[in-house]
Specification:
Number of helices: 8
Strand content: 5-15%
Shape: globular
Number of strands: 7
CATH topology of the largest domain: Serine Threonine Protein Phosphatase 5, Tetratricopeptide repeat
Strand order of the largest sheet: 6-5-4-1-7
Radius of gyration: 25 Å
Helix content: 40-55%
Order of helices and strands: HHHHHHHHEEEEEEE
Length: 291
């Protein structure tokens, strides 16, 4: 009888400790992230989005760009803001800004077919095109949004603690193997979340937004001109110095460009450059069929 009492008491103590750990983990890690991922767009921003859409439909692309650009500064801006902003820039014949915003939209909605189609269409218009290898082996992580990976991790966490409690209660062989399987899912989902966040934090991609960027041997106007990059070219930023950035287009082509000539893909939310860069006029017989 005493053995049963001690066994039951030991189980309840372990269960209490397990529940405490579970609650602390959710309160510290899961709940704040969940709250951030479920924030709703305020009414004022929604009204501005509607106004920008009306400007776009009416052909007032500069006004639409200005309003979408304001929305893009908000941490709550979703993929539709960047997608519509990219469309407005395409209509305004600004290929670089269109590609940059399509790429931002794709990060937030990686499996959206409309974004994929318009991004491919815009990239086919580039003059300086080359094969892109965005993230090599870990590129598959960008099939999922950070929010999706977070909820997989949260679910794996909940299932793991439930399986642990079940195993402590039953102590069966099948519950042990279930616990091991869910522990692996829990660990790997956490690693995938961490890898996704790391890739986002170290994402150094940028897009040439000037009609023509002069790439020099050093961060000064007097330095040797190495080559030129046209609007829409994708580069990697290696480092910054004053008003210049060292970028690489390919392994054999790298140099310094002015800050105003490029737009980083990350961070997503931030001030958009004033739409001062426009493409040279296109002859009537060669007008682009923008999407």
């Amino acid at each position: 009888m005493k053995h049963n009492i001690h066994t039951c008491l030991g189980f309840h103590i372990r269960a209490a400790g397990l529940l405490t750990a579970f609650v602390i983990f959710w309160a510290v890690v899961i709940a704040p992230c969940a709250a951030a991922s479920t924030q709703q767009t305020p009414g004022r921003e929604l009204a501005l989005f509607v106004e920008a859409n009306k400007d776009y439909i009416a052909g007032r692309y500069e006004q639409a760009i200005e309003k979408y650009g304001i929305l893009a500064q908000s941490p709550l801006a979703g993929p539709s803001v960047f997608y519509n902003l990219g469309n407005a820039y395409m209509r305004a014949d600004n290929l670089g800004m269109a590609i940059a915003n399509y790429k931002k939209a794709k990060i937030l909605a990686p499996r959206d077919k409309d974004i994929d189609f318009n991004l491919r269409f815009a990239k086919n218009l580039r003059i300086d095109a080359h094969e892109e290898d965005d993230f090599s082996f870990f590129g598959w992580l960008f099939i999922f949004t950070p929010t999706e990976l977070f909820w997989v991790f949260a679910l794996a966490n909940a299932l793991f603690f439930a399986a642990l409690a079940l195993h402590l209660r039953l102590k069966k062989e099948w519950s042990y193997y279930l616990l091991i399987a869910l522990a692996l899912v829990f660990v790997f989902s956490g690693l995938f979340c961490a890898a996704r966040l790391y890739l986002a934090k170290t994402d150094n991609r940028a897009v040439i937004i000037a009609p023509k960027a002069l790439v020099r041997a050093g961060p000064h106007e007097r330095d040797t001109l190495l080559f030129e990059l046209n609007s829409g070219s994708l580069v990697r930023v290696e480092r910054k110095e004053n008003n210049w950035q060292l970028v690489s287009f390919t392994s054999a082509k790298r140099g310094w460009v002015k800050n105003a000539d490029i737009l980083p893909v990350m961070p997503l939310h931030g001030e958009q450059p004033s739409p001062i860069h426009t493409e040279p006029p296109v002859p009537d017989g060669q007008k682009k069929n923008n999407t």
